[in-house]
């Protein structure tokens, strides 16, 4: 047969086989879940007034232009980076509000403005953030597949009063599927007053890969900086002393470094292991849709804003370049990630999974988030220049605007909406309130389902989706408002954390709990350090920073 006649047949067959393989690789359940949101959004659009739809469409067009321009400027034409940046967006949104009020599309009231903003944000979150996370799940995982040779790795475990926990953390690292000659583990006892040092030292005596150093209590940031003095690995991994890593987590968390030299830090996926209460299950659902999904979206641009302290990785030279950890905030992981991003490096997310203990009571959750949210506001204020400096690319144009809306607009808007709902109920508009609740709950439900599908989580968590609309959400909104006021009015804020479950069960509820500082105390005061495997009898049990949470 004529080869010229055969060639088109072969090419057509190869293309068909390629198309079949692509179709087989599609995760169709994720596709179905994502597209199912068209139903509630269509119902919402169907009941909206035409003027409101015009206002939403105009703002959506404005944001689309901004995002498209941002992509062009960052990727193609950095010489125009100062044109239509975050300042320009703020001016454009202000002009937009004036225009829609003048056109009669929006009533000139705070409530109407908050309502419009809430609806727009749910559109943006689903069709931008969730879409990118969905796309990331479809095509992005394979680009960071682990493969040898694996780099020299040093794992730092800062620990303050982690008796009963640090041994499990070290054991999980020793059991990890990673070349033994490329892994060293350094546990840093940050002046513990319990048996943390002895517990960790037992592993040092049994394994050459483990070493233990001790210092006077000075805070988690100082424990990490001290541990760096004993680290020899090219990649530095930090693991909290109450966390357990998956056997393949270390291989996954170093994979992005080999794939892209511009990556300076890598985040992990955080999973809660103690899911035996309403509080911990709500937290896991929050992690699934509010943390892990959000990180996957930002990973597409290389601007993951927080490398979690429970499992994160950094290039050694990058940490040295940004002078490692600072005492300026209560969230050293957020702060150092911002420093890495500001230095021009990409921060990515991996498939490495870590299991951590979550606060089991509302009081303990309050204490944990008190530190987190205060630290978040401290970190944003510390790095405020990034908000107005267009040279920071996607960090300035995408990540921080979303983060500012999340931190400064949503908590206050939540209570405006609650007040309006209370008024509607009092006025007898119960069906209207129910319809709004059903819409937002359905969207959160679908986002949660998509997150559970992507992360391989427990589908029973969907039962708690309504609490992320009413109840659990307001708890965090109120705490965010309190923490913002705390940061603005009280310059010296201490470290707070939740009590450890097993330490409470064992009859030692005071272990690991750090008292509030007295007036005038500062965050993480510098203290004297000790040499390797040397205990420190003169530690301060009332120091307010620690190394394990």
Explain the overall architecture.
The chain is α/β, with parallel strands linked by helices and 549 residues long. The protein has 2 domains: 21-139, no CATH class; 147-549, Spore Coat Polysaccharide Biosynthesis Protein SpsA, Chain A, CATH 3.90.550. 55% of the residues lie in helices and 10% in strands. The chain has 19 helices and 9 strands. A 9-stranded mixed beta sheet has the order 5-8-6-7-4-1-2-3-9, with helices on both faces. Helix 6 (110-139) crosses helix 11, helix 6 runs parallel beside helix 17 (430-455) and helix 13 (332-342) packs parallel to helix 14 (362-382). The radius of gyration is 25 Å and the shape is globular. The chain crosses the membrane at residues 28-45, 51-72, 84-105, 111-135, 404-425, 431-452.
Characteristics:
alpha/beta, nine-stranded mixed sheet, single chain, globular, Spore Coat Polysaccharide Biosynthesis Protein SpsA, Chain A, 2 domains, 9 strands, disordered C terminus, 549 residues
């Amino acid at each position: 047969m004529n080869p010229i006649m055969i060639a088109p047949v072969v090419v057509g067959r190869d293309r068909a086989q390629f198309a079949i393989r692509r179709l087989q690789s599609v995760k169709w359940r994720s596709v179905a879940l994502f597209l199912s949101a068209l139903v509630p959004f269509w119902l919402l659009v169907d009941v909206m007034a035409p003027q409101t739809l015009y206002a939403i469409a105009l703002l959506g067009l404005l944001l689309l232009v901004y995002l498209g321009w941002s992509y062009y400027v960052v990727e193609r034409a950095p010489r125009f980076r100062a044109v239509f940046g975050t300042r320009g967006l703020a001016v454009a949104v202000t002009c937009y509000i004036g225009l829609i009020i003048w056109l009669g599309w929006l009533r000139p009231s705070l409530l109407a403005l908050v309502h419009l903003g809430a609806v727009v944000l749910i559109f943006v979150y689903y069709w931008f953030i969730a879409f990118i996370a969905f796309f990331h799940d479809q095509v992005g995982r394979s680009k960071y597949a682990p493969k040898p040779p694996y780099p020299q790795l040093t794992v730092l475990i800062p620990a303050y009063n982690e008796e009963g926990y640090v041994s499990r953390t070290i054991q999980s690292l020793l059991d990890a599927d990673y070349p033994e000659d490329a892994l060293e583990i350094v546990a840093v006892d940050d002046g513990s007053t319990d048996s943390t040092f002895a517990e960790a030292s037992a592993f040092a005596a049994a394994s050459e890969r483990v070493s233990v150093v001790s210092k006077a209590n000075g805070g988690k940031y100082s424990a990490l900086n001290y541990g760096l003095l004993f680290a020899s690995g090219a990649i530095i991994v930090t693991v909290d002393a109450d966390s357990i890593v998956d056997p393949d987590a270390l291989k996954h968390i170093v994979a992005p470094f080999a794939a892209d030299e511009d990556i300076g830090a890598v985040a992990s996926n955080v999973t809660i292991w103690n899911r035996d209460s309403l509080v911990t299950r709500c937290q896991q659902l929050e992690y699934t849709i509010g943390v892990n999904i959000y990180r996957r979206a930002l990973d597409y641009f290389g601007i993951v804003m927080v490398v979690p302290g429970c499992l994160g990785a950094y290039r050694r030279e990058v940490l040295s370049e940004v002078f490692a950890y600072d005492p300026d905030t209560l969230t050293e992981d957020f702060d150092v990630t911002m420093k890495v991003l500001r230095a021009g490096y990409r921060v990515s997310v991996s498939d490495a999974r870590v299991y951590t203990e979550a606060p089991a009571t509302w009081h303990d959750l309050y204490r944990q988030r008190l530190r987190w949210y205060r630290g978040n506001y401290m970190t944003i204020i510390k790095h405020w220049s990034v908000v107005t400096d267009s040279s920071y690319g996607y960090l300035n144009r995408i990540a921080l605007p979303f983060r500012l809306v999340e931190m400064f607009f949503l908590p206050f808007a939540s209570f405006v909406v609650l007040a309006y709902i209370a008024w509607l109920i009092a006025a007898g508009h119960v069906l209207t309130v129910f319809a709004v609740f059903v819409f937002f709950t359905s969207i959160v439900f679908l986002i949660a389902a998509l997150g559970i599908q992507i992360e391989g989580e427990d589908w029973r968590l969907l039962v708690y989706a309504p609490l992320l609309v009413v109840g659990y959400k307001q708890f965090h909104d109120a705490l965010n408002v309190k923490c913002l006021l705390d940061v603005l009015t009280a310059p010296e804020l201490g470290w707070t954390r939740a009590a450890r479950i097993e330490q409470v069960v064992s009859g030692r509820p005071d272990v690991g709990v750090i008292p509030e500082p007295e007036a005038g105390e500062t965050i993480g005061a510098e203290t004297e350090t000790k040499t390797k495997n040397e205990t420190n009898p003169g530690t301060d049990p009332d120091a307010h920073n620690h190394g394990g949470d």
